[in-house]
DNA sequence: GCCAACACGTGAACC
DNA sequence: TGGTTCACGTGTTGG
């Protein structure tokens, strides 16, 4: 039996120690793993538990490796807890029994998100005429077969001459293509519904940028027009 | 060094084998783990690789344990894949980069589900007057501090004398308490909005039962009233 | 005893 | 390097 590298022996050492096959120090592992890297042919037992490296410094490379392992172990535990806490929140949100298993839960989440997207799409998609309330709606579609992301954006606000130029500027700067545009004006207000395509390489960012850009466009529009309007009822921002 | 049980030694054997410290058969592990349970004091190496148990039967207890381990390993892999595939679907649904880590993804999912619930609640909650379309809407709230589940249910259909008794019967049979009830009638139609509390012990089931009960109530209502109505435009069922 | 689901600790990969 | 994330195989528990 000739060990090939130190890693294997540190594993072996740990294995033996954890299973009580050799005695270990208070913490669990001594700083003697180094000695195992060039092991003497004697058997591993507690009588070999003497080493010279530990007298040189308090923090031998072995101790440091050990501390790293401990860190790693704890970090991993925190990671698991973080994930599980989110899963628990989802259980609450979906009214799932706390003992619903993870896979089933996630399947339900997928289904629910699809339903909700569908519902908001239907509920908010019915509007074609401008409303009294200012609205920015970005309904994210999914990726088309050719890798483009197709989605729908709706903007409802006061009509003004430079709205379309502003809108075009935004779309151009984000490298978004307008596949289709509907606009309806009524009583000084306008509703703009755009079908937009984004190249796959910067699609996600573009969607978020567009949301923010439209939102700020709407705010700009509001602040400049506020004096003219008798009332701004509300502001809706729908992000699907 | 006296091993305490067989499990430890099978672990040890596996450890040694996996790290090439002893030779193993074609599959990976020989059927010799039993011999390790009462080990001879000699060292573990390939020269000890002879055993009598395997000649008795093809399926020794060791082989069966081995097969079970293999099963277990593969089942666990399938489970991981199942979970991860759902996570990937969620990544697609949320337009997340494929390298968004699990915890962050799940945090976004939680946030998104909350947003979507909020939006559908707002979008569908605006209606107070009865619509032309028959509707059952159950908007699930979350658990209150005292463990009760509070949620909102809305029902819109033809008005009829025995609607309220039917409704009360349903709620009573499901042990649901009505905290608040709004009802608006207009042109022979009625909209009923109920705030309902369910005890925690059978809350989830009750919500689903209620959904089904209201749905069938609506269908019953329709079939008996169909002749009187000139048109039933549509039927909406919203479940949040 | 089997099966399914979980938490755990660890090695590997990526910054 | 250290920090962080992932997949993996395993021990364990409940049905």
Automatic annotation (TrEMBL), chains A, B:
- Where does it localize? Nucleus
Is the keyword Protein biosynthesis in the record?
Answer: no
Question: What would you give as a GO molecular function for this chain, any one?
Answer: protein dimerization activity
Primary place of residence? nucleus
Keywords annotated in UniProt: DNA-binding, Nucleus, Transcription, Transcription regulation
Keyword Zinc in the entry? The reply is: no
Give the source's domain of life in one word: Eukaryota
The GO cellular component terms are: nucleus
Q: Write down the Gene3D superfamilies for this protein, in alphabetical order.
A: Helix-loop-helix DNA-binding domain
Q: Tell me where in this chain the BHLH domain is found.
A: 67-116
**Annotated CDD domains:** bHLH_AtAIG1_like
Pfam family of the protein (one): HLH
Q: What is this protein called?
A: BHLH domain-containing protein
